[in-house]
Amino acid sequence: MTGSLWVVVDPDNGVPPWRQVRDRLVHLIRSGALTPGAAVPPIRQLARDLGLSAGTVARVYRDLEASGLLVTAGRRGTVVADLPPSADPPAPPPDPLAEAAARFVAEVRALGAGRIAAVAAVHAAWPD
User: Fold this and answer.
1) Is the pLDDT at 4 greater than 50, yes or no?
2) Signal peptide location in the record (predicted)?
């Protein structure tokens, strides 16, 4: 799985990019979308996919290792740790529409277009 399909960083939402990546990975792990033993992308690959520095992604991985959510597994790289049973109910599944919208917004911004142009494009593309 590539970073751009499961993590989106919005530089304009006020939350630091490292925190956005961390929160998304925590959600994916807690919801079961990333299962124990599942490999996460190498630091440099995820950084490149998200347009972040390797140091930013390394900070996220260190934080998640310290939290017991990730472990370094030698040649296997960094993987999701075995999670202890939790009294908390599993997190709700991610909203696919919200995720698609976030990807769309990221692409629109990369094109240099604004909100009004993006909404107009959606209206124009939507069949009646």
Assistant:
1) no
2) none
Contact 51, 86 (CB under 8 A): no
Structure-token pair, residue 84: 């202890």
Residue 107's pLDDT is what?
87
Mean pLDDT for 73-102 is 74
Domains of the chain as residue ranges with CATH: 3-85 (1.10.10.10), 95-128 (no CATH)
3-state helix, strand, coil in the chain (%, to 5): 55, 5, 40
